[in-house]
């Protein structure tokens, strides 16, 4: 009987690459605040190249629920803006991609109007300082995200877990974009085509 050969050594598979760990809390100066509300509104109008008929809508869009001064917060507008941007982008994808099925269309829509994407729009256009709020914790989270986005310019973070950033985007940043979009949508009498033209021209999400 031929003696059996001892089993060979099993090769160890290479460990999977490790993703960067979330950045620890750091001491950052809180994002600024534009106290002059007329100037805050004017900045948004210059950015959008759109003049509001009812600036009260814009002030509502720039008010967080933590700002306890009897003022309306952006929550109702954010609800409308989320739906309006979703429908506007759905229309665009449907018309420009006639061969794509619903699954691919849904994936494209989700990727382009995600919280991460819209938060980056808010950072790019410095919208957070325009928001009326009284929440130091929110300032800290937003400050960390802004700092993380800045770090992307200096490091290769292509494998980071949050679309290039190692810090998850605070939802408030996306909320601001959606609320401002809704303010435009309501102000222009629910003209979805006009809203889309403004968004496409000034807030490219792709």
TrEMBL record:
Quote the InterPro entries the UniProt record gives.
RNase_III_dom, RNase_III_sf
Keyword vocabulary terms for this entry: Hydrolase
The segments labelled Disordered in the record are 1-30
In the UniProt record, does the keyword Hydrolase occur? yes
Task: Give the Pfam families listed for this entry.
Answer: Ribonuclease_3
Q: Where is the composition biased (Pro residues)?
A: 14-28
Every RNase III domain range: 41-189
Q: PROSITE patterns this protein is in?
A: RNASE_3_1, RNASE_3_2
A GO BP entry is: RNA processing
An MF annotation (GO) of this entry: ribonuclease III activity
Q: Which PANTHER family match?
A: DICER-RELATED (PTHR14950), RIBONUCLEASE 3-LIKE PROTEIN 2-RELATED (PTHR14950:SF49)
UniProt-recorded name of the protein: RNase III domain-containing protein
State the organism of origin: Zea mays (Maize)
Q: Specify the taxonomic lineage.
A: Eukaryota, Viridiplantae, Streptophyta, Embryophyta, Tracheophyta
């Amino acid at each position: 009987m031929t003696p059996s050969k001892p089993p060979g050594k099993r090769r160890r598979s290479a460990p999977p690459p490790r993703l960067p760990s979330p950045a620890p809390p750091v001491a950052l100066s809180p994002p600024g605040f534009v106290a002059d509300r007329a100037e805050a509104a004017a900045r948004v109008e210059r950015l959008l190249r759109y003049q509001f008929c009812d600036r009260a809508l814009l002030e509502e869009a720039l008010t967080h629920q933590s700002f306890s001064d009897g003022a309306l917060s952006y929550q109702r507008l954010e609800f409308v803006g989320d739906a309006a941007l979703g429908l506007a982008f759905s229309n665009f994808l449907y018309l420009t991609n006639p061969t794509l099925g619903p699954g691919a269309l849904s994936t494209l829509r989700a990727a382009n109007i995600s919280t991460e994407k819209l938060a980056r729009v808010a950072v790019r256009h410095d919208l957070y300082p325009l928001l009326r709020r009284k929440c130091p914790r929110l300032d800290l989270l937003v400050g960390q995200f802004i700092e993380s986005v800045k770090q992307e310019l200096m490091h290769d973070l292509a494998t980071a877990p949050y679309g290039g950033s190692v810090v998850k985007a605070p939802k408030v940043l996306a909320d601001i974009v959606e609320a401002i979009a809704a303010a435009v949508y309501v102000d222009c009498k629910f003209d979805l085509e006009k809203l889309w033209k403004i968004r496409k021209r000034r807030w490219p999400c792709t």
